[in-house]
Amino acid sequence: MNPAPGLLPGRLGLAAARIPYADRHGLLYLEYGRLSVEDGTLRFVAAQSETLDAGDYAIPYQVVSMILLGPGTSLTQDVLRLCARHGVLIAAVGEGGVKSYTAPPMGQGRSDVARLHAERWADPGLRLDTARRLYAWRFGRVLPHRDIETLRGIEGARMKESYRLVAQRFGIEWHGRRYDRDNPEAADLPNQAVNHAATFVEAAADIAVAAVGALPPLGFIHEGSSNAFTLDIADLWRVEVTLPLAFASVQAVKSGKGDASIEREVRKRAARLFRQEKLIPKMIDRIKALFDVDDRGGDA
């Protein structure tokens, strides 16, 4: 295989300016191309896209922990075999990580976070301490309360005010959070936008949880859901990301400067924002901090 311009020759040739491999977690996002194996290494033949120039790229699996396959990608069975053998995770995702369609379980040597997660969830005292840490990150300070229902009530009041303030910032008329699970399209435009934005941020959290090998059903604040812990993590960015994303999209649609479809407008903005803010790597860092994981040796 002839290396693309800018690549060093050999199996380990990686041009950081060309391949979108940028963070220490080893996440690699690929879109619009074909992933295969040649001479024992990964090969990605890419079409021109927003994230990558057209070309033929060698990808050293040794420095990749998780491959995120975005729109327009295909792969050979040899890729699955190689990645499974070397503990590289593969997830099918939406543009920029706004959807998580499928992700594998933990790879070899990735049980540390899962064990810590299970231990803290199983111990009532540690579970409450972990929930309080999550709330402290949301509030920006540690609250003295040790009753989870009291904390939920305080958070509910904070979120109600946050909705009002963010809507006001973007000039959006807000009449409160209303969501009918059986008929989500019946909601007004701002509530529809919040629904879509929340779904996309939850997808990013899904990817982050899978990347570190945490346990999605074991939530510390949310309960009774197969992705309760994912919701715990997504909610850390509700005020910072979800609400501004939703209300900025409503503003664009109403002004005629955005897409006519609120779902498409939120999705396009979310994809750009997740890339720019490196949201998924930030979520991975936060999960590791939650469980006091020292990853200097390359964990997860």
TrEMBL record:
Classification via Pfam families: Cas_Cas1
Domain of life from the UniProt record: Bacteria
Hydrolase is among the record's keywords: yes
Entry EC number(s): 3.1.-.-
Top enzyme category: hydrolase
Ranges that cross the membrane: none
Gene Ontology BP term (one): defense response to virus
Annotated residues for binding of Mn(2+): E155, H222, D235
Keywords: Antiviral defense, DNA-binding, Endonuclease, Hydrolase, Magnesium, Manganese, Metal-binding, Nuclease
Cofactor annotation: Mg(2+); Mn(2+)
GO molecular function, one term: hydrolase activity
InterPro entries, A to Z: Cas1, CRISPR-assoc_Cas1, CRISPR-assoc_Cas1_C, CRISPR-assoc_Cas1_ECOLI, CRISPR-assoc_Cas1_N
Family statement drawn from the similarity comment of this UniProt entry: Belongs to the CRISPR-associated endonuclease Cas1 family.
Subunit structure, interactors included: Homodimer, forms a heterotetramer with a Cas2 homodimer.
Function comment: CRISPR (clustered regularly interspaced short palindromic repeat), is an adaptive immune system that provides protection against mobile genetic elements (viruses, transposable elements and conjugative plasmids). CRISPR clusters contain spacers, sequences complementary to antecedent mobile elements, and target invading nucleic acids. CRISPR clusters are transcribed and processed into CRISPR RNA (crRNA). Acts as a dsDNA endonuclease. Involved in the integration of spacer DNA into the CRISPR cassette.
Name assigned to this protein: CRISPR-associated endonuclease Cas1
Organism (species): Thermochromatium tepidum ATCC 43061
The encoding gene: cas1e
